């Protein structure tokens, strides 16, 4: 398949995913923050908390609507731009997405209407229930989408059918409860909770800087910062398990995340570092211009042992017999056997050679887990963009630590009733709002860029997954979507800022 087609297809999907991921995390967290505020209103019957809930609910609704628009387009792209992928694994990949649509999305959409329009039409108890169900439904949507994504990172629970040339699900629970899916889901929703908390704290800080709606801002800030602090600790725990699973299932991604070219025992994590742009797989240049390393941390993070061996990019490409690391060339050989066995099976079936079909299938089953390597042109192609993965990961972690610090500091000053005396903290909170979105995008970049060139880990390279259509068509649609999504983002920012400017008394 032509490289231009694959590149434009990747670019279009990345564009859609990146824009979609601006809106989704805010929805995941803001839904629960709104539900907590309405719970306080339900308990206190205070009109203040009703007004506060309605304000944040309005911002949630604006974001929710635009998030849905980008999400629907992204699902359609699986059929338009990634037809080969959809054919190869649609039986598995489609199941969690179908559950997401039928169960989670319908649930959150139904109760969203009650939550937003039903204040005077249903009882306070039912309205509160609806608000919580919207929050839960949004997170259930994320669950099933991330189950599907996790399966791409670690394909389990299926068998390959050579008659249809498709992978078919044989164990739904292996897919749903994958060791990659659960930590991935928990870490992702945790990041959404933190992003929403940053948003609430930042907007509240803006009101305090303007010295308006002070009580509203302070109490909103308490809820946001408390929720954010708890979510930050949760994020640390889920991130640890997520990194452990990456080490086990996608060691190349881990090596790229740390810029690790040479495998090490007692490997440390690079806390601060600058990659050497001259470094390649084949030269002897140092990987870093400079670095500050936390000793033993990577071995502990990845393998829960300070003395564990962590394979580097070179080990994973060229192999390491001492540590039982298979080379890519060996995997390519096994993959070629799997691809060849599939062709032999087809020929035997055409000739009605039952014995030949049996032998070919046995060979195929033996080497199927390396099937994707049979379509890799050279061993070095399995290395993802190291610099982008490394810097995205370290920026994400750095921002996460900043958010935790900010939440703790804001809460401390609020409880000391000194927050108004520290405008620098308030300004920092306001300027942190875009950093919350940046952290989410970098996290997504680590997850998706770090697994390249695989559409499905070890089974299907991206080049095999794309639809055979004109690259010009994809290019034109890329720019159309870029224009549309940018317009939607500008519209959201304008509507959001106007609503914030109007304040809690400005109508919703």
Account of the protein in words:
A hairpin with a 4-residue loop joins β1 (158-161) and β2. This protein has two domains: 3-250 and 384-500; 253-383, no CATH class. The protein starts with a helix and ends in a 6-residue tail after the last helix. Strands 1-2 form a two-stranded antiparallel ribbon. A two-stranded antiparallel sheet has the order 3-6. The protein is mainly alpha-helical and 508 residues long. α1 (3-44) packs across α6 (181-209), α2 (47-80) packs antiparallel against α3 (83-117) and α13 (386-415) packs antiparallel against α14. The mean pLDDT is 91. Helices cover 71% and strands 6% of the residues.
End-to-end gap: 52 Å
By DSSP (H or I, 4+ residues per run), the number of helices equals: 16
Shape designation:
globular
- Radius of gyration over all CA atoms, rounded: 25 Å
Strand order of the largest sheet: 1-2
List the helices and strands and how they pair.
Layout: H1 3-44, H2 47-80, H3 83-117, H4 124-153, E1 158-161, E2 166-169, H5 172-176, H6 181-209, H7 214-249, H8 251-257, E3 264-265, E4 269-275, E5 288-294, H9 297-303, E6 309-310, H10 313-318, H11 328-350, H12 354-367, H13 386-415, H14 423-449, E7 454-456, E8 460-461, H15 462-465, H16 471-502
Antiparallel strand pairs: 1-2, 3-6, 4-5, 7-8
Helix pairs in contact: 1-2, 1-4, 1-6, 1-14, 1-16, 2-3, 2-16, 3-4, 4-6, 6-7, 6-14, 7-8, 7-13, 8-13, 11-12, 13-14
Quick summary:
The chain is mainly alpha-helical and 508 residues long. The protein has 16 helices and 8 strands. The longest helix has 42 residues, at 3-44.
